[in-house]
Amino acid sequence: MESKVAVVGAGQSKYGESVDKSVKELFLDAYIELINSVDNGLEPREINAVYIGSLGSGGFQLGNLSALMAEYVGLPGVHAVRIENACSSSGFAFIEACLAIMSGMYDVVIAGGVEKMRDVSSLKAKYWLGVSGDTEYERLAGMTFAGLYAIMANRHMHDYGTTREQLSMVAVKNHKNAFLNPKAQFQNKITLEKAMNSPMVAYPLNLFDCCPTTDGASAVLLCKAEIAKKFTDSPVYVAGFGTGTDYLALHDRETITSLKAAVLAAREAYKKAGIKPKDVDVAEVHDCFTIAEIIAYEDLGFCERGEGGKFIEEGLSSMEGEIPVNLSGGLKAKGHPIGATGTGQVYEIFNQLRKTVQKPARQVKDAEIGLTHNVGGSGGTAAVTVFKV
Ligand SMILES: CC(C)(COP(=O)(O)OP(=O)(O)OC[C@H]1O[C@@H](n2cnc3c(N)ncnc32)[C@H](O)[C@@H]1OP(=O)(O)O)[C@@H](O)C(=O)NCCC(=O)NCCS
Question: Does residue 347 form part of some domain?
């Protein structure tokens, strides 16, 4: 696919617990960084449309969220749409923004996301998150998201011999990466021993196998590829993207050791980009639980099916490895503000490919092709995008 869309700016709020900031203020933080990142300048009136991913911000702002965000950052009047696809909301908002540009309708578009999860009690957050699975069959039967991924982890361990240590290795790697990310929720390194011995949440997943609940926002600026150089001398181009869906309830799926939606999305994205999995230099993948990152290595073709455990154990996804994965700290340690996660991943890849990450120690060397993998719920939806410089 010839690149028709470029990313020319990106911003992200600090992820974590923001007791002193509202949903609007978090989005404003991301927007201000986005505007400042556009090297050659951007007049806000040049922005035609805003696509915002959000699950529902803890029930605080369920309606008209996109117009509210647009209004608050000084863009009343633009075409504004909220996209809700659970945890992949802004991965899909990004793709909708690409489609709007590719259709010829708009030239300059913002895709972003926002979520405020820490205002509600832990119990309410779990209840609210649970409705992104098949509510009738799963949540109403008492299932949580950690419980769903625990079922997948058990099966993966049974079928392929994936070990508890390998799960914890994902957490250790991602905390190590987040230690170098000033915007991450957890900026602490952890030992394998600490990760292995943390309190059990849903066997075999313990506290350090889970992403936290997070407040945060992210936003990226896209434009028609032909006009990208007007905004910056170093645009990042969208080389290809793909999406997929699957049955929401685990019991309806062909397999629970792979996310079919992600496999479909990756296949389409690679085909459009004209690349093979091994061409990817750096990736941000959806590690809502450690097993999800191991399955992502396999679904994305970074390794053979069943070899994900070995992939982390051999250090192939570390900063120095074959394909560095989640240099931001991933959902596990950078945090997972549901609706903001997809464009938060794009923010990281944009900066990795342009060599503008805040801390040089976190900068991957010589990366030309980046990938984002954003999954909704327990795999009901998935969006994969390939970027190139
Ligand atoms: C893991 C989880 C169950 C912990 O919930 P909780 O016990 O209510 O956690 P709290 O926010 O009250 O934090 C309790 C402590 O654990 C720590 N903590 C919370 N989540 C953590 C995580 N994922 N990793 C490491 N530490 C964590 C907190 O920092 C806090 O530490 P402190 O007491 O030293 O301050 C919860 O974060 C969760 O449900 N995560 C998954 C979210 C999810 O499903 N997202 C959608 C994915 S598809």
Answer: no
